[in-house]
Amino acid sequence: AANKLDEPFIWNRPDELGLLGSSFEFTRKELENRTIQINRMTLIQKIHIEKLTRIATALSSESHMPTLLELILDGAKELTSSDGGTLYLKSSDGKSLNFHVVKTSSLDIAMGGTHGNITWPSLPLYLEDGSPNKEMVAALSAITGEVINIHDVYEADGFNFEGTKRFDAANNFRSKSMLVIPLRNHEDEIIGVLQLINKLDENKNVLVFDEEDKNTSLSLASQAAMAITNRILIKGLEDLLMAFIESIAKAIDAKSPYTGGHVRKVAEIATELAKAISDDNKKFPHVKFSDEELKQIHIAGLMHDIGKISTPVHIVDKATKLETIFDRIEYVILKCELFRLMHPELSDKVDSDIEFLKTINKGGEFMSDALIDRLKDIASQKIVIAGVEQNLLTDNEVYNLSIKKGTLTKEDRDAIIGHAALSLNMLETLPFPKKLARIPEIAGNHHEQPSGRGYPRGLNAEELSLESRIMAIADIFEALTASDRPYKDGKKLSECFKILEFMAKDNEIDAELLKFYYESGLYKDYARTNLKEYQIDEVEKLNI
Ligand SMILES: [Fe+2]
Ligand SMILES: [Fe+2]
Q1: Is the model's pLDDT at 146 over the cut of 50?
Q2: Which has the higher per-residue pLDDT, 21 or 151?
Q3: Number of domains present in the structure of the chain
Q4: Is the pLDDT of residue 360 over 90?
Q5: Do 285 and 424 fall into the same domain?
Q6: Residues with beta carbon < 5 A to ion ligand 2?
Q7: Which of 30, 242, 513, 524 has its Cα between 20 and 30 A from that of 15?
């Protein structure tokens, strides 16, 4: 019969050999039972390990904090077959435990995590006199780091279960067995507590938590604490980066009180446009931006003019041709008055010359050759200052007033073009994390044009990403509508779109994108909150 333990060992003799036989049979049966038990235990452990591995993998890859926290509680409930549970995290001052997720499967209760915030008051870890709050199991576990296993909360001594009992009464529930596990991270710091309620068997009977539950929960808790700590550290870095970006954006906006809020508004316009494109299924059916990509566009918007840090303030805001640190027009008028004193008979001419100089200084009109000739005539008239005869206008004043279009000289323009090159340069040197890696390109190309005539690099249409084209339109639209310039009113929407339409025809901006922006009606939403009443008018259908 050796080696045949799977078959019964029957020996029907009444003598000693018979007795030995039945004792063999007894041992055989016992061994068989133990083997079944061990196999069962091994199987359960295997399932636990599999579950634990699956949960741990999910924990390490989940970056959304509320989802992560819910995943932890769900995992712990699953591993221990618990009906309910609560996940607390320590408050940032370390003085209390905040409710983050609460679940009771049999009552269909799910709060916190992905279901929104829980408004229940937090549990104080210390009493008013500063002594540890030992009455609350969760607080005690958070303070001492102990695992607490309670067979029946209604029978347990030394703890205050008023809150649990109130919950039970309100929900017609009976909390019984409870397992409380501290969440300890890799630095041996307790960051929260996991509280499990009512371990259930297959028939929904409440069981007491066992050693196995304690061990699996502890190993889950350490994985969970690590995942939470990582998430908190990453979030801290992200918050720091965002705060830093916002403060740079503020500094650039503050540089010009007139164009105040430009970068913030450009970021808003660009992000809204990108969202609408992502949601659209007709014109851009294949374009989908994830939340992270939208965030990337938003940050690119905030950083697009970062190079303006080095542009002289008087050029950022050069509203008239004669403006340097101040507008020299007053000084020019003073010189005209001096000329009038010397030639009283030309007083009428001086009046009209002053008017002429004031007008061309604003840079509103194109300077034809005839206008430049008139300017030169005025300039060449002689005046005497401190006994020295000189031209009414200096060469530099004539040079600035002769600017044919706008208020910027070539040198001013170079300084401004420089900002785009510098923006690109500065952004390219920043080690952005992978998900924000395209910021330099999106932000740095906002003055490039599909025609290839843009700056700083003169890229062509194929080299411009959709995001950078979005940024370009947002930048121009904001600049056109901005009403906070000293000598310039913000244009009406109809005028803005006329100019944008011309720019699209000249291939300076993406025509399809402009059309989409117009048809989406997004500009109306922007106008309602950002523009003045008089600017908001009807925009005719674009002819592109
Ligand atoms: Fe710019
Ligand atoms: Fe800009």
Answers
A1: yes
A2: 151
A3: 4
A4: yes
A5: yes
A6: 305, 475
A7: 30
Same domain for 57 and 173, yes or no, is no
pLDDT of residue 410 exceeding 90: no
Distance (Å) from CA 449 to ligand 1 centroid: 13
The residue segments making up the domain with residue 475 are 256-316+411-535
Let me know whether 40 and 138 are in one domain.
no
The ligand that comes nearest to the alpha carbon of residue 419 is: 1
> Same domain, yes or no, for 418 and 523?
yes
Please give the Cα distance from 475 to 471 (Å, whole number).
Answer: 6
Residue 189 DSSP SS3: coil
Q: How far apart are CA 425 and CA 419, in angstroms?
A: 10
Residue 215 backbone dihedrals phi, psi, to 5 degrees: -65, -45
Q: Which ligand is nearest to the CA of 266?
A: 2
Distance 127 CA to ligand 1 centre (A): 57
How far away, in angstroms, is 440 Cα from ligand 2 center? 14
Ligand nearest to the CA of 474: 2
**220-236 confidence digits (pLDDT tens):** 999 999 999 999 998 89
Residues 311, 436 within the same domain: yes
Separation in Å, CA 238 to CA 235, 264, 423, 433? 5, 19, 21, 10
Question: Per mean pLDDT, which of 309-323, 347-361, 403-417 is the most reliable?
Answer: 347-361
**Mean pLDDT for the stretch of residues 77-91:** 96
